[in-house]
Amino acid sequence: MNFFKSFNQKLLNLIAFDFLVLFTIRVYLAFIFWFAGYGKINWKSGYPNIDRFADFLGPGGQDNLNFVMPYFFGWLAILAEAGGAVLLLVGLFSRWAVLPLIITMLVATYYHSPNGWNADASGYEMSVTYIIMLMTILIFGPGKYFSLDYWVLRK
Questions:
Q1: Which of 6, 84, 111, 143 is a good FRET partner for 66, with 20 to 30 A between their CA atoms?
Q2: Is residue 3 part of a domain?
Q3: Measuring CA to CA, which residue among 104, 103, 80 is closest to residue 30?
Q4: How far apart, in whole angstroms, are the C-alpha atoms of residue 132 and residue 151?
């Protein structure tokens, strides 16, 4: 029985490395959301253009989300994803940055919900996974040492 207690204590000591887990989640999500946000922009003559994405958001076809003001919400989604990615990467305003990302992922979950859970069938599995990871950052923060929030807010 002492073996299990001592082994359990060693496992509990791993909490000292929690900052590495939070850092890894932040970096992973930063790359996911950067490419998602940047991928929504088509560059034409050096200017960003989101016509294709706004057409998907706006009223129209069967697969559209039927949002009013699709360009406004399109730019909000791009700003949330690409801007949130940058903030997550450096760990600045991390808890604030994940809030619009969670909302964006809730919309993605809604859109993919008719396809069921499985990501292979274009389901909502990945959006829910991202929401869980974002909630981890929201609750536990960006972590120590490798985030600007830690150094700025340190007492």
A1: 84
A2: no
A3: 80
A4: 25
